[in-house]
């Protein structure tokens, strides 16, 4: 007989404890291969396709699209070794006789976005499974297991089935599911429906009717969760723990822009301004390693880090994310340009892995792309500093004793005052400005 295996939401790393189901890639009855992605989830850091370690036929799914599940909650069950629906009166070959799809350890969660989800529908395999699985009730079970009816307003057809988590929430709160009309597809009862019913049960006596204009004046409520919630927590922690200070300087970037134009004129991959600034940063951090460090509060120690893992701010539809370029100190401007472009493309597509968004030691924030000159950024905890770069624009500037129009940029450095004093921070920023004004200065450190 085939063995029915339950696959749970795995630990996706980096301390993440929950994920939201964005899109199911398989349905009940589909045949899946070992390590085939079965669901796309969104964590506080990235969108991730989760592969299943078992091969066989999907017998149940748990959780609706848009529902948040904790790590360890059931995702799907798979009849291992079943390649298609059995013919009438037959049963699948026993696994011990050589099914070829015995369970094996999960390989990992790096997303291969070039591989499309494979779906092949077969007839239900209920008859092929002789023993029930000790698992919560599925979201979309076989028709032989109907759920409790919903309100009469639900359209005719199969009775919507709610997830085990929603069913438990309703039971614990004393909510009669038969009295609810689900807001999901085809009247499906979602967690939000049960939560609304619970709120109604515990609400105080009704207040006088409020005019629509007054309701609108209360404003829209947006849940502080997912990426936005993670960013909010990180920024708040930075403000709580880090005594930061900021210094800034205006620099003449005319020579830097001319050097970039000369580099790009000789052919080959284009060099970005961000890549040149990143190369300047890594050279400056080599001179002032205090700023490539972190503070260990438990040990009461400053930890200077050997490698520069350079974060850079990227604005996406999901919000602000900070991808990390590993070992930036070992990269030249061409390599940095290519890596910035690759990570930015993944960020905008929502395909960054959690590992691409963690482990930074210093952040470069180019807010000039938003058309602003200056800022006092919040340090990306647990780092010790962040360099901000404003827009590069034509301004009047004294050059070689004469007033001239030059390309000017404002540079700002926010730093953790625990790791260094103003002299070190000022020295770092002045070195960066000198390299911007005269790129030849950088040649001494190459």
Description:
The protein is of the alpha+beta class. The protein contains eight helices and 19 strands. Strands 9, 12, 15, 16, 17, 18 and 19 form a seven-stranded mixed β-sheet that branches. β10 and β11 form a beta hairpin. The longest helix is centred in the middle third of the chain and has 16 residues. About 16% of the residues have low confidence.
Which features does this protein show?
single chain; 7-stranded mixed beta sheet; 4-stranded antiparallel beta sheet; 19 strands; 446 residues; alpha+beta; elongated
Please give a quick description of this structure:
With 446 residues, the protein is α+β, with helices and mostly antiparallel strands. The protein is 23% helix and 23% strand. The longest helix is centred in the middle third of the chain and has 16 residues, at 226-241.
List the helices and strands and how they pair.
Blueprint: E1 3-8, E2 18-24, E3 31-32, E4 36-42, E5 47-52, E6 56-61, E7 68-70, E8 74-80, H1 164-173, H2 191-202, H3 212-217, H4 226-241, E9 244-252, H5 254-265, H6 273-287, E10 293-296, E11 301-304, E12 310-312, E13 314-316, E14 319-321, E15 324-325, H7 333-348, E16 362-366, E17 385-389, E18 393-399, E19 402-416, H8 422-437
Parallel strand pairs: 12-16, 16-17
Antiparallel strand pairs: 1-8, 2-4, 2-7, 3-6, 4-5, 6-8, 9-19, 10-11, 12-15, 13-14, 17-19, 18-19
Helix pairs in contact: 1-2, 6-7, 6-8
């Amino acid at each position: 007989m085939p063995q029915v295996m339950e696959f749970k939401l795995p630990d996706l790393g980096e301390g993440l404890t929950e994920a939201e189901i964005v899109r199911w890639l398989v349905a009940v009855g589909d045949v899946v291969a070992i390590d085939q992605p079965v669901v796309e989830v969104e964590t506080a850091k990235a969108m991730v396709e989760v592969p299943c370690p078992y091969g066989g036929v999907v017998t149940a799914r748990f959780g609706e699209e848009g529902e948040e599940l904790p790590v360890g909650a059931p995702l799907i069950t798979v009849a291992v070794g079943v390649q298609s629906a059995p013919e009438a009166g037959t049963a699948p070959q026993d696994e011990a006789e050589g099914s070829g799809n015995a369970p094996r350890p999960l390989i990992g969660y790096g997303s291969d976005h070039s591989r499309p989800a494979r779906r092949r529908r077969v007839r239900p395999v209920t008859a092929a499974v002789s023993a029930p699985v000790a698992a919560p009730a599925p979201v979309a079970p076989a028709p032989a297991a109907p759920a409790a009816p919903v309100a009469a307003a639900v359209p005719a057809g199969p009775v919507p089935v709610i997830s085990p988590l929603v069913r438990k929430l309703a039971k614990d709160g004393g909510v009669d599911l038969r009295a609810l009309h689900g807001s999901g597809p085809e009247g499906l009862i979602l967690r939000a429906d049960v939560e609304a019913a619970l709120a109604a049960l515990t609400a105080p006596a009704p207040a006088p009717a409020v005019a629509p204009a007054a309701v609108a004046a209360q404003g829209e409520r947006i849940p502080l969760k997912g990426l936005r919630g993670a960013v909010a927590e990180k920024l708040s922690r930075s403000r709580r723990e880090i005594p930061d200070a900021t210094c800034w300087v205006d620099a003449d970037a005319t020579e830097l822009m001319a050097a970039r134009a000369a580099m790009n004129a000789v052919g080959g991959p284009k060099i970005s301004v961000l890549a040149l600034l990143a190369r300047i940063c890594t050279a400056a951090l080599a001179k002032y390693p205090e700023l490539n460090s972190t503070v260990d509060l438990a040990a009461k120690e400053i930890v200077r880090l050997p490698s520069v893992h350079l974060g850079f701010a990227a604005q996406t539809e999901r919000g602000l994310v900070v991808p990390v370029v590993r070992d930036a100190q070992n990269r030249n401007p061409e390599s940095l340009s290519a890596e910035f472009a690759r990570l930015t493309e993944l960020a905008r597509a929502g395909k960054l892995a959690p590992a691409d968004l963690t482990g930074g030691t210093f952040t470069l924030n180019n807010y000039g792309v938003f058309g602003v000159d200056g800022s006092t950024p919040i340090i990306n905890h647990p780092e010790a500093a962040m360099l901000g770069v404003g827009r590069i624009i034509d301004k009047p500037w004294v050059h070689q004793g004469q007033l001239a129009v030059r390309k000017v940029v404002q540079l700002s450095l926010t730093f953790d005052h625990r790791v260094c004093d103003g002299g070190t921070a000022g020295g770092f920023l002045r070195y960066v400005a000198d390299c911007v004004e005269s790129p030849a200065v950088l040649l001494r450190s190459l």
